[in-house]
Every structure is written in C-alpha cells, then in structure tokens.
Specification:
It is built from 14 helices and 12 strands. The protein has 373 residues and is of the alpha/beta class.
C-alpha cells in the first residue's frame, strides 16, 4: 500500500495518527490543515517552577514572529504540568529523560534559546546542534558566551548586586529583549481545562463559598530557596481577623511545606476560613487559585499563576527585585521603605526585616482598593 504523507507538517506524529486524522478522518494527501514547519526552535528552561511559568510569556510573541515554527521545550519533571492545554508548545521533554540528550544529539534546530546561566542549561545549549544560539552557551574554552549585549546585561545582574538593584525592567521584558521579541501584549499562557474549571466549582460547593462577596486567597509559602520572602504567620493571623470582620471569605493557600502554618490558622479560626489542603497536584492548585478574587502572596510561583489566571494580585516584595516582577496591571506591589531591598539573601539579621515592615493594614487597604476597581 502506497500513501502520501507530510513529514514536515507540524501535526505529523511518527508513531500514531495525527489529531486531524483521528477527529475528522482526513489523510495527508488531501489534508487542508497541514502546516509546514519553517523553523525548529528549542527552548531550554529548567528551573525553578515559578521562573518556568513566567518564561512561558515569551511564547505568544515567539509564535507571532515564527508562525510556522515547531517549538520544543526542555524542562524538569515538576514543570511538565505547566504545559498541559498549551498549544503554543509542540513538544515538551523531561530533562531527566534520556530522550533529551538523544534529541539534542540527533536533531538540528534552527534556533536554540537558553536564557539561564546555570551549568545544566548552558551545557544543553552548548551541546545542541543549531544554526543560531540565543542567550547563553559555552565557548570551546569552557567560558560562558553571550549571544548579544542584552544577554550580557542579564548575566551581569546575576553576578553583581549593584546591577540588580538599578535595573528597572521586568523579567519578562529582559528575556524578550534577549530573544529579540516584541514585548507588547505579553502574557503568561495558562489555560484550565473543562474538568479543571469544574473542580473549581466543586471546591466552591464543598466549602460553601458564596457566589457574591469577596474571596481572598492568602498564600503562606515562598518556596524552599527564598525563605526570607515569606510574610510572618502573626501578620497573616492579624490580616485574617481583619478581613473576617469585613465579611471576606478566606482561602489559605500553600503546599506540604506550609502544613503547620495552615493548621495553626485553621485551629484559631476553625470553620470561618477555608484550607486548600497542602497535598494538591499542581493543576488542582491552579483550580483552587481560580476560586479566589484576590490573592495575597510573596514573589512565588503562585503569584505568577494567579496573574496567568487573570486574578487580581497583591504581591509582597522584599529580598527580590520589585522591578523585575511583572504585575500586568492586575494588582499592587507592596514593599518596605528600606535601603537593603533586593539583597537576594537567604538569611537576614536586621530586625524588623523588609517583610516585617509590610503591615497587615497596608494589605487590607490594598485588597479593598483592588476589589472596588
């Protein structure tokens, strides 16, 4: 049997029928959905979960610049759920899967994009076969190489606190400039499935969340690396008490590392507040974020996810850069008036520190300012 097939179509899959064959019984020889690939692009972004999420913001502009491109993204296993329902990426590869090295060894890309300077990412970018490298890779001498001056500036921000402090660009703008993309109308693509939206509604019913009225999500965590980004539990308690007096509905947000904090607040306020639990899958966590009208959070993955879901966000910033944080006109950035901001330190001896100087009343006022917009 002799049939025609389009190997260079972005929908063609080597080991099974494409989606249009399955959905519409179309064969390659008379397919009107065929899209010929003119650019094969590899994106390397491994760490951390929140950074991978906000780096997705390059995709809309990248696809606009290269509409017939086939985009492959290599990341770590914990970030794979971010790509669910995301049509802007054609293939996602787990960095720890041996396929990632095999792919780089056998495939020639037109463009390889790596905007990280960690050893793993640079090694992958250096190993990849490509006509053009964007961002960072290694010279034959083993020294780091910059594809352009914008990459060099980002490198300097990573090694010199002075450059970090004086920077006024958001992370998304910095990365877009390195790649040469139009930053206008940038956004983080994150789409909930029909089932995930249904999970939001189930969560509302199970926890008797009223249809009318303000629902505030309080994110208690900040990840393992930057514990200084967390706001104090006593302040969360005070804010919760103030919001309950104004009839707001409170959802406590966090993961397994926040179990003690969540239990502590639940013990104090009992059924007056709602816990998201602390052992949710990443996608279920997104569905719970979707229940909230306003999320109060530090500079974390939850903050970027909330913005991607088009939620209003109040982000508390201290040791990390307020300039780098893109708020997308969806919220308010709060930070203390203290000279040592943007220190990127894991420990701090200053009392009160930058996060302690952000008071519950400030956040309460910010919440209702956003709510009444």
């Amino acid at each position: 049997m002799d049939i025609k097939y389009n190997l260079n179509c972005k929908y063609f899959i080597f080991d099974r029928p494409c989606k249009y064959h399955k959905q519409k019984d179309i064969i390659c020889s008379n397919c009107t959905y065929c899209k010929k690939i003119d650019k094969r692009i590899l994106i390397i972004k491994l760490d951390a979960l929140g950074d991978v999420l906000r780096t997705l913001s390059i995709l809309p502009s990248l696809k606009k610049k290269y509409p017939n491109s086939y985009i492959t993204w290599i990341t770590r296993k914990n970030a794979l759920p971010l790509f669910k329902n995301l049509d802007l990426v054609d293939r996602v590869i787990d960095y720890e899967d041996p396929l990632s090295i095999t792919l780089l060894h056998t495939t020639k890309f037109d463009i390889v994009i790596n905007v990280d300077t960690n050893d793993s990412a640079i090694a992958l970018a250096s190993f990849a076969k490509t006509k053009e490298k964007i961002g960072f890779y290694l010279k034959k001498s083993g020294c780091i190489a910059f594809a352009n001056d914008e990459a060099r500036k980002w490198f300097l921000m990573g090694i010199n606190d002075k450059y970090k402090k004086i920077n006024k660009k958001t992370y998304q703008k910095i990365i877009s400039d390195i790649i040469g993309l139009d930053y206008k109308n940038s956004y983080i693509p994150l789409e909930l499935s029909k089932d995930e939206k249904a999970y939001s509604e189930i969560f509302k019913r199970q926890n008797k969340i009223k249809k009318n009225g303000l629902v505030v999500g309080l994110n208690l965590g900040a990840g393992r690396r930057w514990q200084n980004k967390t706001w104090s539990l006593k302040y969360f308690e005070q804010l919760t008490r103030n919001l309950l007096k104004r009839s707001a509905q409170i959802v406590l947000l966090g993961g397994i590392e926040e179990e003690d904090k969540i239990n502590n607040l639940k013990k104090k306020f009992r059924r007056r507040i709602i816990s998201c639990g602390y052992n949710n899958s990443l996608r279920n966590f997104f569905s719970i974020l979707n229940v909230c009208d306003i999320i109060v959070t530090g500079d974390t993955m939850a903050a970027h996810a909330s913005l991607a879901l088009k939620k209003k966000v109040i982000v508390l910033l201290g040791p990390t850069s307020d300039s780098e944080f893109e708020i997308y006109n969806q919220g308010i950035k709060l930070f203390a008036d203290i000279n040592c901001l943007v220190c990127y330190k894991n420990t701090c001896d200053i009392k009160p520190n930058c996060m302690d100087l952000i008071k519950p009343k400030q956040i309460e006022n910010a919440i209702y300012s956003l709510y009444n917009r």
